[in-house]
């Protein structure tokens, strides 16, 4: 759809989804002792998600973690179980989509198929699953389940078979599956989901992207104010279009540092960076390096262990005032050809509210519309 701008020329109108990576883990995604209120508690997350629903965000996604870091920030030492939180949040909300995270390496496909079908009983049509293959050894050492026999490509091969089994259980009366990794005989599972749950994946390596395109509805790519990340997102789009006549949607994971003014936003970023937890970052990176396929992991997969300019936040973090951010976001969305974004912010109440009311509505000036373009309620729900 084409719309005129203020000068009278025409630009393409694009609609995107906007979601939130919710902080069910302490410190959120900030490797620093200097963070806003991010305790990793259900009480806080419930306030965040109810606010996100009120302000018009499309979805929320929770991570899954079994081990924090050893640094001074105690990054992710408090972690809520993604599946348990999802069930509670679905019951506590009415419209917003609530997506969970699951590792194919720790739970049989039938267990997840049944769990998500049960979620659909709570909130029909609002469920989804972020599928993770698991490339961080220390997480699985906590569970006693690290499988060093699988390399990077084989983990995605196993994940593809896992998805095949899950979808079969959701759509077939009786499932018999004798595969390389999974074996089910005369399996029956009811109830079925009312609609197939949304499947997403954040693998940006060649194997990861191919897995997402062939098996998922959405591929998450780390993106932001970084030409290499923008190009990676565009390359993902081209690959999806070449592999499927129903291209997988490309969503970006974005960290935003907003402020009333650009100087206030920079001050917040510098304050966070001043408390950077280098020991915690080193501990997290060591978990990835213990994987024999470390060299196959993509820059997107490793983006959460710190950027080039700021170590405390992911690569490509966007820093700016609420008035500057619309143009900055519009440029990233347009150049990277994104279908949606998922946000990380320092303050999940104040910042999400102000972005919904002040920043995202102005993306329409650049030909980009969102559900947040017409927020109806100006709510203050500080916990």
TrEMBL record:
Residues 17-283 form the Luciferase-like domain. Gene3D superfamilies: Luciferase-like domain. GO terms for molecular function: alkanesulfonate monooxygenase activity. InterPro entries: Luciferase-like_dom (IPR011251), Luciferase-like_sf (IPR036661), SsuD_RutA_monooxygenase (IPR050172). GO terms for biological process: alkanesulfonate catabolic process. Keywords: Flavoprotein, FMN, Monooxygenase, Oxidoreductase, Plasmid. Pfam families: Bac_luciferase. This is LLM class flavin-dependent oxidoreductase. It comes from Sphingobium fuliginis ATCC 27551.
């Amino acid at each position: 759809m084409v719309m005129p701008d203020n000068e009278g020329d025409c630009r393409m109108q694009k609609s995107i989804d906007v979601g939130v990576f919710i902080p069910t883990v302490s410190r959120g995604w900030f490797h620093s002792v200097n963070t806003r209120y991010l305790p990793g508690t259900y009480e806080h997350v419930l306030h965040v998600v109810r606010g996100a629903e009120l302000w018009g965000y499309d979805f929320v996604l929770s991570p899954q973690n079994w081990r924090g870091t050893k640094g001074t920030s105690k990054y992710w030492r408090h972690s809520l179980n993604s599946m348990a939180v999802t069930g509670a949040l679905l019951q506590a909300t009415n419209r917003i989509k609530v997506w969970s995270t699951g590792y194919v390496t720790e739970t049989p496909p039938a267990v997840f198929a049944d769990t998500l079908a049960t979620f659909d009983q709570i909130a029909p049509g609002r469920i989804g699953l972020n599928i993770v293959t698991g490339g961080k050894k220390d997480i699985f050492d906590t569970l006693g389940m690290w499988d060093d026999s699988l390399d990077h490509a084989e983990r995605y091969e196993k994940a593809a078979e896992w998805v095949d089994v899950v979808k079969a259980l959701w759509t077939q009366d009786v499932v018999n599956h004798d595969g390389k990794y999974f074996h089910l005989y005369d399996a029956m599972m009811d109830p079925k989901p009312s609609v197939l749950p949304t499947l997403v994946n954040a693998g940006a390596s060649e194997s990861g992207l191919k897995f997402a395109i062939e098996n998922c509805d959405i591929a998450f790519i780390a993106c932001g104010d970084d030409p290499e990340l923008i190009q990676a997102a565009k390359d993902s789009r081209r690959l999806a279009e070449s592999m499927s006549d129903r291209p997988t949607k490309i969503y970006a994971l974005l960290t935003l540092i907003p402020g009333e003014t650009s100087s206030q936003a920079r001050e917040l970023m510098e304050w966070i960076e001043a408390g950077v937890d280098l020991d915690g970052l080193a501990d997290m990176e060591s978990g990835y390096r213990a994987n024999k396929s470390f060299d196959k992991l993509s820059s997107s997969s490793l983006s959460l262990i710190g950027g080039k300019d700021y170590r405390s936040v992911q690569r490509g973090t966007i820093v700016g005032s609420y008035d500057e951010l619309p143009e900055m976001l519009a440029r990233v969305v347009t150049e990277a050809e994104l279908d949606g974004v998922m946000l990380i912010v320092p303050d999940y109440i104040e910042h999400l509210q102000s972005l919904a009311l002040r920043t995202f509505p102005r993306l329409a000036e650049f030909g980009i519309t969102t559900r947040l373009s017409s927020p109806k309620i100006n709510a203050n729900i500080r916990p």
